[in-house]
Amino acid sequence: MAAEMLMAPGRRVIVAEAMPSPARKFLMAGKSGLNLTRVEPLSVFQAHLAGGDLSAEPRGHLLEDGTGASFGPPEVMAWAEGLGVELFAGSTGRVFPLGMKASPLLRAWLARLAGGGVDLRRRWRWVGLEDGGFRFDTPEGHRLLRPAVTVLALGGASWPRLGSDAAWVPILAGAGVEVAPFRPANMGFRVSWSEPMQRFLGTPVKGTALVVGDRVGRGEWVISRAGIEGGGIYEVAAAIRDGAEARIDLAPDLTSEALARRFAQPRGRLSLGNWLRRVLGDPVKVALLLEWGRPLPEDPQAWAARAKALSLRHKGPMGLERAISSAGGITSRALHPDLELRALPGVFAAGEMLDWEAPTGGYLLTGCMATGRRAGRAAAARLSAT
Which of 217, 328, 380, 381 is the most exposed place for a label (fewest CB within 10 A)? Predict the structure, then answer.
């Protein structure tokens, strides 16, 4: 996105790509359909962007392009459609390519950049600053570039095998750039399941609400061998990671009174499990209630209260190697508002390198593209001013 903002007739733009092929994490996102953005009011969308060094203060300004306009959901959709990609919005407002794949969009995007004269150099890994330039390890040996402006988009620290291995941290830290430690984001949580839960490994959990403070996640999640994972978890993962208590509402579409009436049905000769299945209608919900709800209640009101606020018991977040994204990175104190590094004039940064985070569901991808656009436009403006 930064290269797209920088390319212009007569201007030489180089994209130095460390991996053998570009956009590997973008393609990984496409394996689940490529949720580009989300149709909802901008203020609601912006509230999902947060920054570690600003505590809970929203980072909605990251969507601004430097001219006072925003690069939010409508602009992302128009941009993708401009590449010839048809989109559709699901019932939750999530926006996907009609073909549910990232590769057609990426091919069209790379073709646009190539047509604009952008030079993509593969297996060019940045290894340091040297003599006022940027040193790279390449298949042809060491190379040194001294660009007029630079945009760094080197990723955070999650999914290192796809290229975002945070190897840039000591380089920038050594140059005086403040970098907050990386932590997992959009990750699952470790759970040591009991023997009765083993038969549910790999089973999706549907029709629940995950309640963490004032945030509620209604998405689907999965019981995995390692613990709990999936979109519903990722919606509230940051707050859980930071110590907030999480509770599960196993019947979010029923009031406590209505659920209590169900629990008041005579059990008769039914086993406990069969009786609970009759009440909750889902064996997975029953298993979770028996796993995390002990000591078990005795009266209908208590059963309903437990099922409406089941404590989510976990042993901490999964590590960065399993996280979809990361929190931490270059702090806002190290940046000018246009994303230029204070310690390195003419060098800008974008994407997961910055200390911000957002849940999946279209927020993360939109935020990354918006920061690339903002940094690229700022770098282009600096070129024009010189």
Answer: 381
